[in-house]
Amino acid sequence: MHFPEQKCVFVHVPKTGGNFFTRCFLRFSGDSMVTSGHQDGADRFELAGDATKTKHQTLAEYSELIGPAFANYTAYAFARPPVERMISLYYSPHRWMREQEGGGFDLDARNEPINLQEFEALVSSNHSISDLLDTQNIPARLMLNTSALHASGASVSLLNFANLQSGLKRFGRKNGFDLTDIPAEKVNSSAVNNPTALNAGQMDRLAETVLDSHHGKDQEFFPATGLKGVLESVSRWFNLYA
Question: Which DSSP string corresponds to 7-47?
Fold first, then answer.
């Protein structure tokens, strides 16, 4: 999402509260919401604008489209631990919705264990946060609630999905946006009940699949922890917010 007056962009990482961010701040941006097919304009939609060609546009794409002026920009994104994010993405409503004969769509949560073959394909085919933020062109280590410089000259600010409301308020204050009527409800949440309990017998395998992939680099955004710590954090998050 592009905010030309504030000279900043928001890089929407899937399953990190980006749709909720859009609900809060689209009115301040230079972009417009676009819907088609199964998209409902709340949980499912696209964005379009002078420098925004897709909702999940990468930092590198923004840099190319905005040009030299991007050196004076700040790029914001929310980060979420990669194992937790990939499990949430697997159970995301858009993956299971089916068109109904009488019109509309049935959001089938598929409240069942993860199919390992499907999960491996999902992990392989989706961008990591590092991909989306072009961290190969960020010399310094980027961590939660810190900023680092991209090769373009732009500053990259990484917000913590675990403290979504705090991150939204921080973004709003930094850019002078009115937050008096900020919504309280999240959107596009995974509808499945307690995925860690559903997948109790294969959580080690799921975590290893993610951490051994290109998503494993995303774990560097977070304090160092072993596989046991990763699994405990995933379980704690889903028990609180599923």
Answer: TEEE---TTSSHHHHHHHHGGGSS-EEE--TT--SSSS-EE
DSSP state of 156: E
Tell me the whole-structure pTM to 2 decimals. 0.86
Q: DSSP string covering 38-72, please? A: T--SSSS-EEE-SS-SSTT--HHHHHHHHGGGGGG
Residue 26 half-sphere exposure toward CB, CA atoms < 13 A: 21
* Strand pairing category for 105-106 and 32-34: unpaired
Q: How far apart are CA 58 and CA 147, in angstroms?
A: 17
pLDDT in tens, 214-226: 999 999 999 876 6
**Mean pLDDT across the chain:** 86
Q: How confident is the model at residue 41 (pLDDT cuts 50, 70, 90)?
A: very low
User: Which 3 state secondary structure label does DSSP give 95?
Assistant: helix
Going by C-alpha positions, the residue among 210, 221, 211, 234 that lies closest to residue 122 is: 210
